[in-house]
Design a protein that fits this description.
Blueprint (H helix, E strand, L loop, with lengths): L1 E3 L2 E3 L6 E3 L2 E3 L2 H7 L2 E6 L4 E6 L18 H8 L4 E4 L5 E5 L7 E6 L2 E7 L5 E2 L2 E2 L4 H8 L4 E6 L2 E6 L5 E6 L2 E8 L7 E8 L1 H7 L4 E5 L14 H25 L6 E2 L1 H17 L12 H7 L6 E8 L4 H9 L2 H8 L5 E7 L2 E8 L1
Parallel strand pairs: 19-21
Antiparallel strand pairs: 1-2, 3-4, 5-6, 7-8, 8-9, 9-10, 10-17, 11-12, 13-14, 14-18, 15-16, 16-17, 20-22, 21-22
Helix pairs in contact: 5-8
Length: 354
């Protein structure tokens, strides 16, 4: 027991005396002075921050919007891979432990986007797989979210079941919901993103009123053909990571990359993009199994997912997980390998067991 202002407080851990020094639990001391204490399991670090001054920013594994790239390196080390996003920044991919999977968007040396979906993630006391009702109690999710940026007033439609937006201490948080894990929606993943990146990416539907600011919402970003190929290759590898993270959370085996199947998938996405259609059959009427065989791929079991219109791999994956047929392929323990092909905003996943 400890005493604060004559009040008896129960300690989770007793004080320890070592070499004539008394050690008391850090959480007890910090919270007694009104501080916030958070354990970051990704790197076994304790973060103590002042709640009153708002120093503690929303974070995923200790990573917050606006942090410097050098801070990220000190917390998580070098990423396993660096990908390119379609929004002008790089993704730092940390996939060494899929239970703590995280990808971090870095632009001009600062964090502008963070996404995590590993089963080890806990955000503000809410775990991946937690009920949507927990989010609603904590963040009061409303049908419309309003905010201002650069003298432009935005109103976001927040009624979509599969994705909920909340401003947490001024930081936009996207809660992706799993509509099929249980009878009620559960938390699938979390994405923190800077307000300007959220707006310019157009990953949410919004209306806005212009009131004298200088924000150009409609200016297109010119992307070279070489840059597009790099972005598409990034999406392909990310979809493998995201698929495996979803599988490991549910006890399924990990898939390995299948380059030959990826080339077949790429060909189908290209076919759909060039000929402006969306189907499992090619423009000449060939179904995916025959396309695999014609490319010399022999298989015992195969399946295919296709998606269209999503702005990046994260959005494509979350959309596929909320479609029962596509979800079945993603989690099917009979599959052993995966090849992904992306062209523009057409996505094809070929699951193959040799």
């Amino acid at each position: 027991m400890a005493q604060i202002n004559h009040d008896q407080i129960h300690l989770d851990s007793p004080p320890v005396i070592n070499n004539d020094r008394t050690y008391v639990p850090l959480r007890f001391i910090s919270e007694s002075f009104g501080a916030h204490v958070e354990w970051v399991s990704a790197n076994n670090t304790v973060i103590v921050s002042d709640q009153k001054t708002g120093v503690s920013a929303p974070n995923l594994y200790g990573i917050s919007i606006g942090q410097s790239s050098s801070e990220i390196l000190s917390i998580l080390g070098e990423p396993q891979r660096k990908d390119r996003s379609s929004f002008g920044y790089d993704w730092w991919i940390y996939n060494g432990d899929l239970n703590k999977y995280i990808q971090i968007g870095i632009q001009n040396g600062k964090v502008v986007d963070v996404y995590a979906n590993g089963k080890g993630l806990i955000f503000d006391g809410i775990k991946i797989g937690g009920q949507q009702s927990e989010l609603e109690r904590k963040y009061k999710l409303t049908p419309k979210v309003k905010f201002e940026f650069d003298q432009v007033h935005f109103t976001v439609d927040n009624t979509k079941a599969e994705k909920k937006l909340s401003l947490v201490d001024g930081v936009p948080i996207l809660f992706y919901m799993d509509l099929h894990q249980s009878s009620a929606p559960t938390l699938s993943s979390i994405r923190m993103i800077s307000i300007d990146t959220l707006i310019k990416s157009k990953m949410i539907g919004y209306g806005y009123q212009y009131s004298g600011g200088h924000l150009n919402l409609d200016s297109p970003t010119t992307i070279t053909a070489q840059e597009k190929e790099r972005i598409e290759a990034s999406f392909e590898r990310q979809l493998l990571d995201l698929t495996n993270t979803a599988r490991i959370r549910r006890g399924a085996s990990l898939l390995t990359w299948n380059q030959a199947a990826s080339q077949v998938a790429k060909g189908h996405s290209l076919d759909m993009a060039i000929n402006d259609f969306f189907s499992h059959d090619s423009s000449s009427g060939i179904e995916y199994g025959e396309r695999l065989r014609k490319s010399g791929i022999q298989y015992r079991t195969a399946g295919e997912n296709i998606a269209w219109g999503q702005i990046d791999a994260i959005e494509a994956h979350e959309s596929l997980m909320n479609s029962l047929g596509h979800r079945k392929n993603i989690l099917n323990n009979d599959f052993a390998t995966l090849g992904v092909g992306v062209k523009g905003n057409y996505y094809t996943e070929n699951f193959v067991t040799p």
